[in-house]
Structures are given as structure tokens and as C-alpha cells.
Amino acid sequence: MLTVDAALARLSQALDHAKRLGADAADAIYVGDASTSVQVRLGELEDIGRSEGEEIGLRLFSGTRSASVSSSDLSPRALETAVERAMAMAREAPEDSYAGLAPEDRLSRGAAPDLDLSDPADVSAEALKARAIEAEDAARAVKGITNSEGASASAGRATIAIATSTGFRGGYATSSNGLSASVIGGEGAGMQRDYAYHSARYLSDLDTPAEIGARAGERTVARLNPRKIDTGQMPVVFDPRVGSSLLGHLIGAITGSAVSRGTSFLLGKLGEKIFADGIHILDDPLRRRGLRSKPFDGEGLPTGPTAIVDDGVLTTWLLDSASARQLGLAPTGHASRGISGPPGAGPSNLHLAAGTLSRDALLADIRQGFYVTELIGQGLNPVTGDYSRGAAGFLIDNGQLGPAVAEVTIAGNVKDMFLNLTPADDLRFRHAIDVPTLRIDGLTVAGA
Questions:
Q1: 281-290 pLDDT, tens digit each
Q2: Looking at the DSSP assignment, which residues form a beta bridge with residue 65?
Q3: Is residue 301's pLDDT more than 90?
Q4: CATH dotted code for 4-220
Q5: Burial class for 77, CB neighbours closer than 10 Å (0-12, 13-18, 19+)
Q6: Where are the domains positioned within the chain?
Q7: Does the structure show a pLDDT above 80 at 143?
Q8: Which of 359, 347, 349 is nearest to 423 (CA)?
């Protein structure tokens, strides 16, 4: 895997060759990564894997025509051949008046902020195995656990670098650490499973194996002997580990591609209230050690915190340069890209701000409701916002969590769900998308 400086030098060579061949504009991205993962089950090593790879993606423009190619051979001659192939393809490609590099006057300049994304400590395969075994042992030690699907531990590193013919050069290195456990409780047809996991940039920020294992075991045992729930309209409360999916639906509706194609249930809602008063949703790509933190976006534009929803009002679309041109707007610094194809748009570290009520207070006045801990399937119409998903969780009975509930469908419309959403005060920053416990009144719950 190349260093950032070495990767940028390789990208510059490719862009120089593109210029010599007559390309009007070009950009290139390098992604190198290496990771080790260990899987154990019932205290024994089940699998160990090591993956390493590096690749360069090139995008060349001939007027308004463009083409993209990628190469895992990073030798100078191989990159020259890739450039030549892309140039030939670009000359035959259809015209696209919206395609192009990011505006040169908006590119990130100067030193990139230090986001502390790379842990200097290395983790051996033997240490990963020990962590996975410890997590599984802790899960299996919970009374009621009868079997295990295993535990896994992983550690990895990556380098990302981007260069454009308009003068942008930037790169950064990251590390990742993960640990998970999944176990089974009960016997025969009454068996239930659940899991716990955590990911972090730094090993020192990761939950301990004992914590992850115990959480997996306790969640599994709590799901034993589920009952049915009566069909009707009632308050539904989303546990933070599934409530984040609601923000995923929001993001899918405000990305430039969905808006420009007219396939968003939020068309025409920019600048309007789509959540209740007091709701704030923020995207922060500059969070130190954040799982999706980055000093610049996929087109070389600077990144910064964005209030996507401010006091309930939708303030922005998430736009790469192409979708911004199509909509007659400016790119927002949310471009994301891989090795192949043009950039799209998406969030970084996203969260819905905490409310003022505790979780217990959020539940207190619910005579009968449904607390969701698992969602099944997709179940969203992106054009209308109609929502229907399978779910499992717990009955809410007179303000308290009751018995486990399974085989449930919850339905509504996301636009109404957003307006009727109330957050608790228990927000924790643990994932790329974080929410507190969320309550939504008036959803249809279909059970027995």
C-alpha cells in the first residue's frame, strides 16, 4: 500500500499523460487497503483472512464527453495504457453537459485538518483471535444462551488520495477496528438470535470484548418466547440501533441524483418544515476519529459541518458537481466516489440531535405501543414515501417494556413519520449514523 505522497505522485503522472493525449480535464483516485479478520465459533478458530489491494480510478473528459477506467496495476506503463484506453473511450462517449470536474475556485486549498483517523497501533491476528474468543465466551456465559453463530474481530488500514487536472492534490490515511458476536438462545422452534458489534478508528475507543459479548447474550435472551401483538394504530418507539434507518431514508431523498431525476418524496420541500419544531439533523465530516470523517470530498471540495435539518426545516440537498449543475445550484461538498464511475453524493458522520426527554419519559404515557429492535426488508417507496417493514421488538405496556414481540409489520408514510417524530435525550456517537431513541405516534402495527 502506497503512502499518501507516493499515491499522489502516481496520480500526477497519470494526469500528466492525460494532458499530453489531449484530455480537456481529468481526475484520479487511489484507494489502497489492507485488513485482517478472524472468525471463531464455540471457542475454536473458524476462519482467518487477510486482504490487501490497491487500485487507481481515472476519469477523463473530451469536451462534454467522459469515460472512466480503473487499474490494479500501478506501474507507469500500465497507467499510461489505462489513460490511453480512457481517452479513446471518452471520444466515443455520449455528450453530457452536466458532467465535469468540480469548480476550480471552490477546491480545497491549504493544509487539510488533522482528523486523527489513523491509529498507530497494529493488531496481530493472534490478538484478534483472543478478542473474538473473549467476546463469544462472554455471550455464551449469559444464562439462556444455547448455541453460538460465532464472533469476529477485524483490523485494517486504508489510504485514499485524489488529484485533479485543475490543481487539487490531497490524501489521508485511516485505520479501522471492529468486533462482533452473535448467539442463539432457546431450543427448537423457540430459538432466537441476536448480536452486538462495535467499530472504531482506534482500538482504544472500541468497546471491550466482555461488553460486546454480554450485550449480544442479553439481547438474545430478552427475545425468547415472543408473543403476537394486536393490529391497530399506536405509538412506535425505535431503538437507536434501528432508528438510524430513518435518517437513511431522509438521505436517499435529498441526494442530488434522486432530486434531479424527480424520484424523491421530498421534491419541492427545500426550505420547508419536514420535521417538528426543535428537530436538528447534522452532518459532520470533521469529527475527530469519525467513521466517515474526511478533510475533503470525492471531488476535492472542502468539507464542513452542515445542518441538514434546522429546527425542523430542510435546509439543503446533498449535491455533487454534476447534480448541482443540473439543478442550477452549487455543489455542497458531499461528493463521494469509488474507483469506477463518476462521483455521487452522500453524508459523512450524520446524527439527529438529542431531545429533552429521557427514554423512560418518552415511554411513560404509552398505554400500548411497540418498541422496535429489529427491522426486516426495505419497504420504502422512494417516490411517495410509503413505508412498510417487518419488525421485531417488545410490547410497551402502560409505559413499561413488556414481553418480546415478533412477526410484526409497521406501516405509514415517511413524510408523516418525520413530522410526528420525538427524540429522547440518549444520543451516543458510535456509528456513521447516530440517533437517540425515537418515538413516532400514529403508525399502523399489524400483528396477529
A1: 999 999 999 9
A2: 62
A3: yes
A4: 3.30.2290.10
A5: exposed
A6: 4-220, 227-448
A7: yes
A8: 359
Segment 180-189 shows an average pLDDT of 93
Q: How far apart are CA 440 and CA 371, in angstroms?
A: 10
Q: Which three cell numbers stand for residue 29?
A: 483516485
Q: What does the block give as the cell for 185?
A: 438462545
Contact 439, 246 (CB under 8 A): no
> pLDDT tens across 377-435, in order?
888 999 999 999 999 999 999 999 999 999 999 999 999 999 999 999 999 999 999 99
Cα–Cα distance measured from residue 17 to residue 87, given in angstroms and rounded to the nearest whole number: 10
Chain centroid, CA 137 distance in Å: 29
Q: Residue with C-alpha cell 488520495?
A: 161
Other Cβ atoms less than 10 A from the Cβ of 72: the count is: 10
* Residue 241 parent element (H or E): helix 240-254
Please report the pLDDT score of residue 279 as a whole number: 98
Query: What residues contact residue 218 under an 8 Å CB cut-off, 6+ apart?
Result: 142
| β-bridge partners, 36 | 50, 155
Q: Which of 274, 284, 335 is nearest to 307 (CA)?
A: 284
Given the DSSP bridges, would you call strands 438-446 and 232-238 parallel, antiparallel or unpaired? antiparallel
How many Å from the N-terminal Cα to the C-terminal Cα in the chain? 55
pLDDT band at 190 (very low <50, low <70, confident <90, very high): confident
Alpha-carbon distance 44 to 308, whole Å? Answer: 47
Rounded alpha-carbon distances, angstroms, from residue 349 to 172, 282, 308, 432, 433: 17, 8, 12, 5, 6
Residues in the chain: 448
C-alpha closest to that of 436 among 273, 222, 281: 281
Cα dihedral 308, 424, 276, 249 sign: positive
Sole residue written with cell 473530451? 62
Rounded Cα gap, residues 246 and 232, in angstroms: 21
Cell numbers found for residue 27: 481526475
